[in-house]
Amino acid sequence: MSKTNESLMQRRTAAVPRGVGQIHPIFAESAKNATVTDVEGREFIDFAGGIAVLNTGHLHPKVVAAVQEQLTKLTHTCFQVLAYEPYVELCEKVNARVPGDFAKKTLLVTTGSEAVENSIKIARAATGRAGVIAFTGGYHGRTMMTLGLTGKVVPYSAGMGLMPGGIFRAQYPCELHGVSSDDAIASIERIFKNDAEPRDIAAIIIEPVQGEGGFYVAPKDFMLRLRALCDQHGILLIADEVQTGAGRTGTFFAMEQMGVAADLTTFAKSIAGGFPVAGVCGKAEYMDAIAPGGLGGTYAGSPIACAAALAVMEVFEEEQLLDRCKAVGERLVTGLKAIQAKHNSIGEVRALGAMIAMELCEGGDVHKPNAALTGQIVAKAREKGLILLSCGTYGNVLRVLVPLTAEDALLDRGLAIIAECFDELA
């Protein structure tokens, strides 16, 4: 009997806990660049990119070749037992890429959550303080500390009780919803007045562009003021670039467009083209605050993943993917705004590079989120052969994270499907 999505879903339901969500009831069999083929032989255009993991596309030949070569050498020693050059070389390249005119060092781990956890450990060790300020709508992971930082309870921490203490929530600036830079800075000052003195705060962590929160872009003026506030009080600024990094926004790291540098930067997702590696890069003096043995992990900085990441960085240079990112973003934004012009259910189209979102609302009122329509569009697009993702605090944002290597014709086909969906549903 041939495999079907339905039969595999039944097996999944019996074997996998329900807490592991699944957006699309599809089982992938193979993929190439910006398309995925399921177990039933149907091809889909991939506008999800494994949630911002495949900026260089599925199975980029250079990444595959690098991994195959590494497989003939070694797959694991644990870097803390026997080191290997790819780990060091990747750290050198990340140090050179991360914004900031200061000496840097990089720690490699395995997941984005792990990178964020370690950034907090480093900040606490470097400052001798324990408190952390995060932002409304922020997403930083699913481990216990990162759940505390994540600004969305359902579904991430629902039913799990209170998360770790010492975390305080500031407002993320969002002009569309009436939160100015002044409001956001004032919310931090309120924390200082009501909850914790600045001398008790080790770090402020922020996504330069919110991911799960809805792809809101932090204004440059706010980032400048945030940097100044951190400097005033000896607080470390952490840029969570897990989703924005590796070229998604038109620069390799989004903070390059923000006018300031963070003290610590977390990265993961697209850095290794689908292989699990993540890390923290920061000022050398802060990165060295923890004694030997306090950082690391058994699989952290896998030689296979390091080889993949080094290939990804070469692909960005050879194929000029940062320029391609801007072109992809412009093409998609133009197409999505043309759809918006016909449908007042689209409250805003926004983007930084090729990190693109459409916010859906009721009757043109951006203060009335339309999660129902968002879900219907995602389902209808799937029926038509396009994989989309939703996000946002209210589940009313469509996000596009298509591989930067996707051909223009494929982008146009995806746009046509989105247009059809709105014509039929909105």
UniProtKB/TrEMBL annotation:
Keywords: Aminotransferase, Pyridoxal phosphate, Transferase. SUPFAM superfamilies: PLP-dependent transferases (SSF53383). The keyword Transferase applies. Its cofactor is pyridoxal 5'-phosphate. It comes from the Bacteria. GO terms for biological process: gamma-aminobutyric acid metabolic process. GO terms for molecular function: 4-aminobutyrate:2-oxoglutarate transaminase activity; identical protein binding; pyridoxal phosphate binding. Belongs to the class-III pyridoxal-phosphate-dependent aminotransferase family. This is 5-aminovalerate transaminase. It comes from Pseudomonas peli.
